[in-house]
């Protein structure tokens, strides 16, 4: 099951440049939450702070509280443990190109020391079914490489890989921006189906996509969270003029 | 300014709606003038305006539909287009009421003149003022002005109720004037409906400007 995320007074920097300013919000469990905003507004930095990926950049640092369930991830947990509990999918599908489809999905488990064939088989099948890819690849699991799949299939493979380690939260940074409309629909259907089991945070530039998939939406601008509310409120009657200017395309 | 083409289309949508509103207002004005003067020519003009109003309703709907499909409007733009679609339908119905009134006036023209206990010009003036004010609120995007239209509806309803009572009594007391009284009663009812449509238009303006649904006594739709 997914868990809620509580963020309080989160600030982040790249070198001396502050990129997030005092962010506070609650991301409810088993819901999809969309983050929107212009390029450079801090939304991707924000999601990277949720699984401590931000600090993988040597000049970057973050301060504040991020609580995943009961765990304060900057105090009570190691980055490795956090990244197991919080899966991430990126804009460009990034399967391990030389690995088979099977090994791509099983890679996280193998890294964590799982070796039993039966367990791996079960997890690979379950994850590929969850990511709606199973029917398309079940006959070629070990014959084909991840890179041989289409872009949309590769992205679902990456989602399967993220799900295989049984996370509680799934972070998606523009997961469909490189995909065609059919593949995009499949990803959106997936988000709809997966949120009963996971808490989903999706960064997107596509506002219709945010409106379609997310119950809550946050609007970031220049490193600040301008507005966070129910998605239908944000897209029909936002409270802040800056949000309205952005979503009606009158920004800048 | 960004989205120049979209903004131009929104302006065009507003302009077209106002042209249609002009035709509808004129139709109501002519129909009520025709009642006072029993002018058959004015009735004909009202009837002739109906196809043009209907055609404009279709064109405005199509433009609004195109904008929804092609521009995926959000927030205030989405509320504006939704309001235009609703106002468009209400204006077309006001046009229908004008035609109904003209038909009744034509009937009255075939009957003996009678002194009827109903002030149709006053009722028409009030209902017409509601339409005008609601449209002015739409032009100016003024939710407060729209709110003031809602208060006028009670007066129109009261006048229609009074007309119903007075004309009902007349039918009982002077059955030979029943046909004239019934025609006047229907006209009074038509004008009361015009007031209702003006109320709807005003509510749509409030929805567009404030994002609040005040229909059916909902004070606010925001959660």
Explain how this protein is built:
The complex is a heterodimer of chains A (252) and B (223). With 252 residues, chain A is of the alpha/beta class. Chain A has a domain at 5-95 and 167-247: Rossmann fold (3-Layer(aba) Sandwich), CATH 3.40.50.300. Chain A is built from 10 helices and 10 strands. In chain A, the strands form 2 sheets. In chain A, strands 6-7-8-3-9-10 form a 6-stranded mixed beta sheet, sandwiched between helices. The mean pLDDT of chain A is 94. Chain B is built from 6 helices and no strands. Helices cover 83% and strands 0% of the residues of chain B. By secondary structure, chain B is mainly alpha-helical. Chain B has a single domain (4-217), classed as Phosphate transport system protein phou homolog 2, domain 2 (Methane Monooxygenase Hydroxylase, Chain G, domain 1, Up-down Bundle), CATH 1.20.58.220. The mean pLDDT of chain B is 94. The longest helix of chain B is centred in the middle third of the chain and has 35 residues, at 75-109. The A-B interface holds A 207-208, 211, 230, 233, 235-238, 243-244, 247-252 and B 1-3, 6, 72-79, 211, 222-223.
